[in-house]
Structures are given as structure tokens and as C-alpha cells.
Amino acid sequence: MSICTSSFAAGSLEGRDRVVVGLLIEALDENGYFAQDLAELAELLPEELGISLDDLETALVQLQASRSAGLGAAQSGRVPGAAAQGAA
After folding, report:
1. How many domains does the chain have?
2. Per-residue model confidence as pLDDT tens digits over 18-63
3. What does the pLDDT look like over 57-81, one tens digit per residue?
4. How big is the CA angle at 60 (ends 86 and 38), to the nearest 5 degrees?
């Protein structure tokens, strides 16, 4: 289990949400960016998990809202909230 995954395990997420966010964390690249298409990831997951594209989209928002700036950003150089922070 990665440091990032364990920090979410200890956080406010429970049960299914923790599992889905954990899947996304495992899909992050070595720099902490999420480069994979969520629809493609949803198709790759075993059907018995019952994880939908909506579940993945919700989990990605939760991941991006974490305390780690840029974690799960869609592409390098685009850190959620960075523009707002720079304007302050």
C-alpha cells in the first residue's frame, strides 16, 4: 500500500468510496498525475466490482480535493486551484 493510499485509508472516506479512490491512486503515474481516460478504466474493471463511470468521476473529484496539491491532476502543469492561489 502506498503512502498516498494509506493516508486516504486513515481519512474520512469509508467503504466503497475508499476502494474506488484507492483504484485511482494506483492508476496515478510516477508524478501523481492521472493520465488515463476514466471511461477506459471503467471498462477495464471487473464487472463484479460494480464500479461505474460515475463512481470513478466522483472518486477523482475526492482525490483532487485532497490535501496534496496536484494529486490526481488531469495533466502535468495543471494543478487544481493553482490559478486562484497565484492570484491571491
Report:
1. 1
2. 889 989 989 888 888 888 899 999 999 999 999 999 999 999 888 8
3. 999 888 888 755 455 555 544 434 4
4. 120
Return the amino acid letter for 66: S
Q: Is 36 exposed, middle or buried (0-12, 13-18, 19+ CB in 10 A)?
A: middle
Q: Whole-model pTM?
A: 0.63
Residue 17 domain-assigned (yes or no)? yes
Look up the CATH number of the domain holding residue 41.
1.10.10
User: 40-46 long-range contacts, Cβ below 8 Å, gap at least 24?
Assistant: none
The whole domain housing 55 covers 3-73
